[in-house]
Model the fold of this input.
Amino acid sequence: MDAVLRGRARRYGDDITTDAIMPSRYLASYLPPEQLATHALEGADAGFARRVERGDIVVGGKNFGCGSSREEAVIGLQATGISAVVAESFGRIFYRNAINRGLLVMECPGLGDRITEGDELELRPREGVLRDLTRAEELRVRPLTSTAAAILEAGGLLPYVKARIRSSEV
Done:
């Protein structure tokens, strides 16, 4: 998590549900991540998948990812190439699913409307800093726990557990 991430803000408000992130009609049969990506955030913004660029940072308000436990919401967002999701707060199940799948999610208390769509952002996870380069403003993000950081650095929970098992083998 030493990397410095840069990208444009893709801004959303409060209470973006997992159904808005990945509508249930795409869950009836298995779709590969690349196809899920074409429907990411469709319930909140039908044009997101066409506009998003690799490295962009999704910025949410309060309770981003609330609702049902829908791992496909995280998979679809990851497959778009975003580098992170920063929100004022997260639905707890979405937050854990994101960490477990290796998607960087960081809480930024007091974020409110301080960032707008298209702002150029720089995220420094290790330092706990989100810089809005467009507005020359710096915000503090809540640091990750050491376990969450280790899981993310491994690429998700499964690679993390496999590495732990390998390291304990004689």
Q: What stands out?
A: DSSP finds seven helices and seven strands in the chain. The mean pLDDT is 94. The CA atoms of residues 127 and 160 lie 22 Å apart.
